From TrEMBL:
<feature type="transmembrane region" description="Helical">
    <location>
        <begin position="190"/>
        <end position="212"/>
    </location>
</feature>
<feature type="transmembrane region" description="Helical">
    <location>
        <begin position="159"/>
        <end position="178"/>
    </location>
</feature>
<dbReference type="GO" id="GO:0005886">
    <property type="term" value="C:plasma membrane"/>
</dbReference>
<feature type="transmembrane region" description="Helical">
    <location>
        <begin position="28"/>
        <end position="49"/>
    </location>
</feature>
<dbReference type="GO" id="GO:0015499">
    <property type="term" value="F:formate transmembrane transporter activity"/>
</dbReference>
<protein>
    <recommendedName>
        <fullName>Formate/nitrite transporter</fullName>
    </recommendedName>
</protein>
<dbReference type="Pfam" id="PF01226">
    <property type="entry name" value="Form_Nir_trans"/>
</dbReference>
<dbReference type="InterPro" id="IPR000292">
    <property type="entry name" value="For/NO2_transpt"/>
</dbReference>
<feature type="transmembrane region" description="Helical">
    <location>
        <begin position="108"/>
        <end position="128"/>
    </location>
</feature>
<keyword id="KW-1133">Transmembrane helix</keyword>
<keyword id="KW-0812">Transmembrane</keyword>
<dbReference type="InterPro" id="IPR024002">
    <property type="entry name" value="For/NO2_transpt_CS"/>
</dbReference>
<dbReference type="InterPro" id="IPR023271">
    <property type="entry name" value="Aquaporin-like"/>
</dbReference>
<keyword id="KW-0472">Membrane</keyword>
<comment type="similarity">
    <text>Belongs to the FNT transporter (TC 1.A.16) family.</text>
</comment>
<feature type="transmembrane region" description="Helical">
    <location>
        <begin position="69"/>
        <end position="96"/>
    </location>
</feature>
Amino acid sequence: SGFYSLAEIARKMVRIGKAKADLSTSRMFLLGILAGAFIGFGSELAIMITHDMPRYLGVGFTKFMFGSVFSVGLMLVIIAGAELFTGNNLILIGVLSREGNLGKMFRNWFWVYVANFLGSLLLVWVMFGTGLWKIGNFAVGAEALIIASEKVNLGWWEAFARGIGCNWLVCLAVWIATASKDITGKIFGIYFPVMAFVASGFEHCVANMYFIPMGLLLKEDTTVVATAGLAGKLSNLTLQRFFVNNLIPVTLGNIIGGS
């Protein structure tokens, strides 16, 4: 058959988790930077493709398309073998089955999280430098700014709960991709749960490491702010709110959803 049995998947997950936890810090870090950038590519592409879609195709279909395109990010992570914090919450399976080590798991989570952040910021820097956000009379940048603004305006519990929903589905995507024996199955296995989490409006900590810093850069451009209709409404788009109102609750929610 084209996929493994449940027992085989569970054993594979334990094996993969153990291998991830045993990676050297430098390798973990490098693969973590790549994963942060890969998720950033998915985020950037989703904005580019859907920035003017709602007025033609409606909000619901736009969310569906945004999620569909965003799934490219996780496909790159899993098929290219990068290290993503949210997917690595599954290392806990090995720890719970007494084959993994709690300390090694936390070491992996820490370094991969930091590296994902760096990779995301690297891509923000590159994408800002491309000037692609000026497309459509700054409409692409305006959409990116609106997304960042909405994310920092979430309540703490809203962000936390959306984090749970997100990584529940992301880890199911990783699980289904692991279940498949061929690359087509892996791609479909990743696509549906990721599309579902994004279209539902859930929150992913690593994606937000791209979306919100991009917004923080774009808010300095008055044309983008005016195009977004956000003049005088961006007092909440700050580094402090990025961490306190979004990144911390979303990360905690992601850990619970994924574990």
